[in-house]
Design goal:
heterodimer, A: about 290 residues, alpha+beta, Peroxisomal Thiolase, Chain A, domain 1, eight-stranded mixed beta sheet, two-stranded antiparallel ribbon, 10 strands, B: about 375 residues, alpha/beta
Chain lengths: ~290, ~375
């Protein structure tokens, strides 16, 4: 961990998207159309192991599998690289609010004996990150970022920071927000995206060593009180609702979609701002910048 | 290997507010255990917890307590470091298990005002300290040591944007949902936290917050309490609530390697020691495996026996109490530990009264969370 320098190049070597109306980075970059059907996690990872898991965790499973597969890291027998070389950083603000509210309702309307022991893991907000690690055998650092509007970009930043520090060669970065009654009341009637995106971030040398395709390169990130100086390039269609903690990860996935399609100009991702506790921005560069 | 100086500390828990008061109370064996203060007790079988007694009216819970405890601890730490109250541009990394979910609960059922901007701590830190490089990590019971690892990574960076100062904090207060679900999985309702004792009944939650100011280098102008030698973090990838001794042992070995210590260098272990039925055995098994023939050498204690399980705050509370113990040669006892479990048989627990007059150089701090997320840190004291 003493090799850490800001010079470490971190690349994106895999990406996945699951939103109503978009299940590829190309569709995301093009802008999901209204009228998409809700994401069904079982269609992507099967029904096994989904029982007792909250919606955000199920979406996280599907995104994790898709991004690892896209990066060439998931084979027939599971992970194709040593478990400890790969960590997870997940971002979500609304992830387990449904479990908390439901358990509380039971406590207030009955007593503690009415609650389900199966809810215990879901009452801990890090269940999205730990569950994905357990299902796919990722034994590197496991971090859950719940940092408001900037959370998704912050998650990308912390994965890059831990790669630079030598804590793991690569990280699965997951941004997911479920939609449900608790979230809608909290958003004053608005809805959440009920989906998200996942990325594989990797030290350039680690990606090169396994002949991975570089899809984008991470540029500078900053979080500060002042509003981001320029707008982001990708905008969330209003019909999808609030992306909250998934927004930053979706923007990076959209950038990958554009670079895949031949765009060469950098893509700016922006979240938060003057209306929030801070704003964050991140620059994504085309693959040849690596 | 660069050791990062700790130049400010602040803490609050059921047993005291302020590092001096808290450390003295723990050394005297004072427990913060009391009957539940903020919940309707008729809903639960368990009746006790380790809460900070700061509610305006007895029996009535109020929103925003986690934020208030956090701001208190950060305020203490920055004052101790002589930083002043404007923290703009200084990274503030907060580890928490439950964020402001208690405020969400009071909004959901009791109609108190709440907005999604209040789920994390950036909003409160901005209002009080003008802090803008704020990060809330929800990493269960190892959250504040995970935050410490990330702070250490920031301080290892070079270049123009690399910070000289990072504030690390941890906080949690009881939520009704977690308190209830935790007791739900115990065959008999937990009565008190008795880490490593054969007759323990399980874990009870506690309120707490802690904060430290870490510097890149010691510039000679500030008092240095101790130095961070290294932090390791990993994940068992095994089970959503049950721990794995193998994953824990791996985190300990990595921490020793990063910090450049061998088992015989360790004078004190501040145990995670939650009193949970599975966890204490898993921690003891891993520790025995890693320490090997030195398993009986270091003093060991588990302060959750007096603070309760302060979840996201607990790793950093362990750090602060550990640093103070190294400074003073005085180690708080593990209250209620009478008959240690077989796995912990070789350990030199401090029980009964505080150990005093010891010559202690290096402490290991353990924190393990739901999902098998492990964090282990090594610190050295200054006298």
């Amino acid at each position: 961990m003493n090799e850490a320098t800001t010079e470490t190049t971190v690349v994106v070597s895999g990406a996945a998207v699951l939103l109503p109306g978009a299940d590829t980075v190309a569709a995301l970059a093009g802008g999901p159309l209204p009228g998409g059907t809700p994401v069904e996690p079982a269609d992507h990872v099967g029904r096994k192991g989904l029982r007792y898991k909250d919606r955000a965790t199920q979406l996280g499973y599907a995104l994790t599998a898709a991004a690892l597969r896209d990066a060439g890291l998931l084979g027939e027998d599971g992970l194709t690289v040593p478990a400890a070389t790969t960590g997870i950083v997940a971002s979500s603000n609304f992830g387990n609010l449904d479990t908390v509210a439901r358990a509380l309702d039971t406590l207030r309307e009955e007593t503690v004996t009415g609650t389900s022991p199966m809810d215990l893991p879901n009452a801990s907000s890090n269940v999205i990150a730990s569950s994905a690690a357990i299902r796919y055998g990722l034994r590197g650092p496991n971090l859950m970022v719940c940092n408001g509007e900037t959370s998704g970009l912050d998650a990308v930043h912390w994965a890059a920071t831990m790669i630079a520090a030598g804590r793991a060669e690569r990280f699965l970065v997951l941004g997911v927000e479920p939609d449900n009654e608790v979230v809608r009341r909290l958003l004053g009637g608005g809805r959440a995206v009920d989906g998200g995106a996942a990325l594989v971030l990797e030290a350039r040398v680690a990606a090169t060593a396994r002949d991975a395709t570089v899809r984008a390169v991470l540029g500078p990130y900053r979080r500060a009180a002042d509003a981001p100086r320029e707008p982001g390039h990708w905008e969330l269609p209003a019909h999808l609702g609030s992306a909250s903690g998934a927004f930053g990860v979706l923007q990076v996935a959209a950038a990958v979609g554009w670079f895949d399609a031949g765009r060469r100009e950098p893509v700016r991702a922006v979240a938060g701002g003057a209306d929030h506790d801070a704003g964050a921005d991140l620059l994504l560069l085309a693959p040849e910048a690596a | 290997m660069t050791y990062r100086p700790i130049v400010g500390m602040g803490a609050v828990a059921a047993t005291g507010s302020g590092v001096d008061e808290l450390f003295d109370a723990l050394c005297r064996g004072v427990s913060g255990r009391a009957e539940l203060r903020g919940f309707d007790r008729s809903r639960f079988r368990a009746q006790h917890a380790y809460e900070v007694d700061d509610r305006p009216a007895a029996g009535q819970d109020v929103p925003g307590r986690a934020t208030r405890l956090l701001l208190d601890a950060v305020g203490q730490a920055v004052a101790d470091a002589g930083l002043g109250e404007d923290l703009s541009g200084i990274p503030v990394l907060v580890g928490t298990g439950l964020r402001e979910l208690r405020s969400l609960e009071l909004w959901w059922r009791d109609g108190s005002p709440f907005a999604d901007s209040g789920l994390h701590f950036g909003t409160g830190l901005r209002e009080r300290f003008n802090a803008d490089v704020t990060h809330t990590f929800s990493n269960a019971c190892s959250a504040s040591l995970y935050a410490l690892a990330l702070a250490s990574d920031l301080l290892d960076q070079e270049g123009d944007g690399a910070p000289d100062t990072v504030i690390v904090a941890g906080v949690d207060v009881l939520t009704e949902s977690m308190y209830g679900l935790l007791e739900r999985v115990h065959p008999q309702p937990p009565d008190r936290v008795r880490p490593f004792d054969r007759n323990r009944t399980g874990v009870l939650m506690g309120d707490g917050a802690a904060a430290i100011v870490l510097r890149r280098t010691d510039d000679g102008t500030r008092r240095v309490h101790g130095r961070l030698r290294g932090v390791a973090v990993n994940c068992d990838a095994y089970h959503v609530t049950a721990p794995s001794p193998g994953g824990i042992a791996e985190a300990m070995r990595t921490a020793h390697r990063i910090a450049g210590v061998k088992p015989s260098d360790i004078d004190l272990v501040m145990l995670h020691g939650t009193g949970t039925l599975l966890n204490d055995e898993a921690e003891a098994t891993a520790l025995r495996d890693v320490l090997g023939e030195d398993a009986s050498a270091p003093l060991m204690t588990a302060v959750k026996s007096m603070t309760g399980h302060t979840s996201g705050a607990s790793g950093l509370i362990n750090l602060i109490i550990g640093v103070r113990a190294l400074q003073e040669g005085r180690v708080p006892p593990t209250v209620g530990l009478d008959d240690p479990v077989e796995e912990a048989a070789p350990f030199r627990f401090v029980t009964g009264e505080a150990a005093t007059g010891r010559d202690l150089g290096v402490a290991q701090l353990n924190a393990f969370g739901f999902g098998g997320i492990n964090a282990v840190a090594l610190v050295e004291g200054t006298r």
